[in-house]
Amino acid sequence: MKFITLLLTLSLVLIAPQAYSRDTKHMLSIQDALASANFKEKLDPTISLYFGEQSHPKTVKSYGDFPTNKKTNALNKSDEAACQWVLLSSLLALQSRAKKEGGNAVINIASYYKKNTFSSKTEYECHAGTLMSGVALTGEVVKIAE
Fold first, then answer.
1. Percent of the chain with pLDDT over 70
2. Residues 6+ away with beta carbon under 8 Å from 33
3. Using H for helix, E for strand and C for coil, what is the string for the chain?
4. Could you tell me what percent of the chain has a pLDDT over 90?
5. Does residue 19 have a pLDDT over 50?
6. Residue from 107, 109, 106, 112 nearest 135 by CA
7. CA distance to 22, 48, 50, 52, 131, per residue, from 55 (Å)
8. Beta 116-118 vs 59-73: how paired, if at all?
């Protein structure tokens, strides 16, 4: 009897982590996220954001490339809602870095999940799990002509 109990316990310990290790890759719309009230309310309009190879005013000075890697609680949220929330967190981090460095824009923003770059004007990459969702971005902090 003890052997069966031990075997069942061991089986549960080995199987349970697999049940919670979901990592679903989503390619989601940047414009849909930016159009939401949260983004309009929280993003700083004085720090411009340019995704992928979007055209932007002339760069006066570059302060370098900076990565972000943000996670959020995904419990009781749809994957899309969690991904939008963590995208907002990542963009706020890039804007904060731009302010710190003296820039007024972040250009060439690209997804940078597990150090794999995906650059797009229209989509960002998010990975959603059972407990957490994550977005990693990289962008160049610059001063652009006004």
1. 86
2. 39, 84, 87, 88, 124
3. CHHHHHHHHHHHHHHHHHHCCCCEEEEEEHHHHHCCHHHHHHCCCCCEEEECCCCCCCEEEEEEEEEEEEEEECCCCCHHHHHHHHHHHHHHHHHHHHHHHCCCEEEEEEEEECCEEECCCCEEEEEECCCEEEEEEEEEEEEECC
4. 82
5. no
6. 112
7. 36, 12, 8, 9, 37
8. unpaired
- The stretch 2-13 carries a mean pLDDT of 53
For residue 10 the two structure tokens come to 């061991």
- State the pLDDT confidence band at 146, using cuts at 50, 70 and 90: confident
b/e per residue 78-87 (b: at least 16 CB within 10 A):
ebbebbbbbb
- Give pTM, 2 decimals: 0.85
Q: Which residues pair with 136 in a beta bridge?
A: 69
Q: Tens of pLDDT along 100-143?
A: 999 999 999 999 999 899 999 999 999 999 999 999 999 999 99
